[in-house]
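Entry for the shared binder. Reason: the reviewer on the internal report wants the predicted structure included alongside the sequence.
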Amino acid sequence: MVIAEEAFGRRAAGGWAVPREAAGGTVAVLEWQAWDGFLLRHVLGDGALRIATDPFHEFPPAEFERICQSVPTVCFQINLSLRRRLPLRIHDLARRCAERGVYVVNGLVQDIRKSTLHAHLEGIGLRSARADRTGPPDEVLFVKTDLNYGGELERQLPPGIIASAGFEQLVSPDIGAYDYNTAARGDLPETVWNDPALVVETHISNGEHSFYRVYFSGQQIIIVRAFAQGIVKKL
């Protein structure tokens, strides 16, 4: 694990020197592949203490103590869709931070796969984008990876880490972030429906090619309305 110098200052002989400005209304962001180009960096600005974290190793106890003594809030920003089996043990770290009086953001979120989101929405009585196998054979459906963003980060990991983190059956060798495609239900083979790395969703579209993104934290909400003509809608 490396703590970024812009967050905690330069490394001292006995470890990381925490600057005095770390005390007060700052947020320690434990991140992996989720800083440059992400909204959180712009929202927090100089209030963020960025901690570049390796999710495939245990978090050092000494650094955990420094965080608990220095900031009132910790945010987990680990850019992986499934986090339960990571050696970082995010859930356990979140519990220990809370026991020390540190407010935790994203500490309980362990699974953000599309299939999991479908199940959550349906569990609370809302409609999800999940498509059924049965239906009009000419209905256009959307084939995606179950992992976020095509599982691009997961597929780049060494085979040993993929196995230990439980990603073996979840990484698609054929479909990436920009390879999502549409197909009629009648043209989809059973192999697509049975592949644990893929999900099939209803293709939702409108004439103006508009879509919305909603970001929220506590009682604060940012709603973005955007336009894109491609099949995959990107901001």
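Summary line for the report: The CA atoms of residues 92 and 107 lie 9 Å apart.
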